[in-house]
Amino acid sequence: MSNANFFPFARNRYFYGKLLTVRDFEVEQRYHCTKRELLNRLLHGAGVVCGLGVTASDESTLMIESGMALDYQGREIVLPEALFRKLQMLEGHEGLGGKKDAYLCLTYDEEDVEPVNATGAEVGAQRQFDLTREGFRLFLTTEPPAYQSLLEAAGQENVSVLYQSDELILVLSLPTILCAGEEFQAQVLVVKNEQTPPVHFSLEGANTFVESDNDKVRLAWRESREEKRQVYTVDFPLRAKALSDVDSRLFPDSCELNVELGSHHYKNYLDVPAAVHLCRDQEECRLRRRRQDDLARHLRGRELPLYLAKLELIHSAGGVFVGGVTNLPFQQQAREEGSGKGSGTGDLTVTTSVRSLEYWQKPDVKAVYQPSAGSLHLDFGIPSPEQYDYAIAHGTVDLTMPGGIRVNSRVFSQEIAHGLGAGAVDVRLSVEFMDKEREETALLCGSSEVFKHKTVKAAPPWVEVAALVYPERGTMRIGLWLHDTVEGNLLRVHYFAQKPERDTSRILAQRRVSLSVTPEFSRLGCREKLQFQADVVGCEDKSVTWSIREENGGQIDHNGLYQAPELPGTYEIIAVSGADETVSASAFVIVE
Fold first, then answer.
1. Angle at CA 376, nearest 5°, toward 73 and 335?
2. DSSP type of residue 144
3. 34: phi then psi, degrees, rounded to nearest 5
4. Residues 111 and 136 sit within 8 Å (Cβ to Cβ)
5. pLDDT tens per residue, range 114-172
6. Residue-wise pLDDT tens digits, 443-459
7. How many Å apart are CA 401 and CA 143, to the nearest integer?
8. What is the SS3 assignment for 296-329?
9. Which of 156, 191, 250, 484 has the fewest Cβ atoms surrounding its Cβ within 10 A?
């Protein structure tokens, strides 16, 4: 049945002598179908039940696995066997030209089949169909989904689109009802392309009901360069203050959104309408949620398709090809039996995330449990691999050769300090000699036997050298074993000592943020433009804030593009690091 209206429910009332017409049989079918569809939608939701995975069979062919799904009207969509479809065979392929990506969508469809002659029909309607076959419709679209409708149909609340461009989309959601002192999560849906640079965004503004040090909420995320997903959610754990019967927006005033994509930096002030109500206890939360949990909330998005896959497209002279496939980009999956919020089984929806810690920090885990939502989020902090810094010392020791026969004799130095203090050190030794082939000083590292060959005229001394290290005293002795006669009265030994360190404060000092601006000095004519570049070293945050010290000194935008004023003079351009406001650098412009 293609009719999307569930209500009102009406069924046939039978009695002896009742005349049954086409309408009566249609009512009979509609009654049972709509009842089943309503239960499907309310108990299982909408989405893929099993199968329906999408892969690229080759550069221009998609394979869709067999499976079953429920659409947003509760109707069953069944693919009884795997399908292979060329892009050119799919509906909507003509609109792919010039597009970077597209979505493969699935919807319910039906058609009338088996034509027959209707002998008793009215004039002009003698040809009818015996059956209505339920099926599906596969099509391509380059239009992004209506994210607010999509997330609300999945049960998300307070949905707001923060940022939308061809490269990146950010959508915020958070609960509308909270308990005083309860931990909760704000979620941001991230949708990007394969070519999109690593995403860095922050959303910050004043807040009255979230616990924080400065009465502000800041949601900041920096994407790892190893992140391969193109659609995912970022969870931000927050805690409500111990207040009750409070209605407030997440950001009562406008909030500041900063988005960084490679060299592109976007900054804007948004009015986010997301609002919550703080209840005094869990019982009040339960009652308030129950009052709001009406039928209309569960039947949202009845015209939405199922987005089976997000396709990365490659364009060439030969046509359009598939570069990559992301299955179920918006996680449209039907609920499993017993996993619903009202099942009463005590099952939890468990989600996880991982934070990268510095190697000297201890691993930790944070848990955010929301009893009302039946969810548990575990946030793991994992230290990064340990890093070492090395202290290095080097010097020379002159060893006096013994008199008389020197073959197979040994010479030792006095105990000397290597300069790295107590502790285990690694010492490498080399012997200085005169390379007669090149007539210059050389150092022998390793065995001189290697160079005893008729094609090599270097002739290093036939000696072995070793060191004894005393870790507790920070000293060492150097010994020399003479295998043959050595010219001269002494041999000079070079030592190179290194010691691994884990001095956190020193390593951090080496990571101090520094900033430079180019060009440092420039000459411009009035109203001319100049692009400044800021190089930030010592941190991952490369953002800067530009300003001009002198009033009426021209204009400069957030990308560093400067336009000189109409008045000649010397003006100072200032860049301040976004990671550390105490770090700044200047450049000077002479306007002539």
1. 20
2. P
3. -70, -35
4. no
5. 888 877 666 556 778 888 899 999 999 998 888 888 888 888 888 989 998 888 899 99
6. 889 888 888 877 777 77
7. 86
8. HHHCCCCCCCEEEEEEEEEEECCEEEEEEEEECC
9. 484
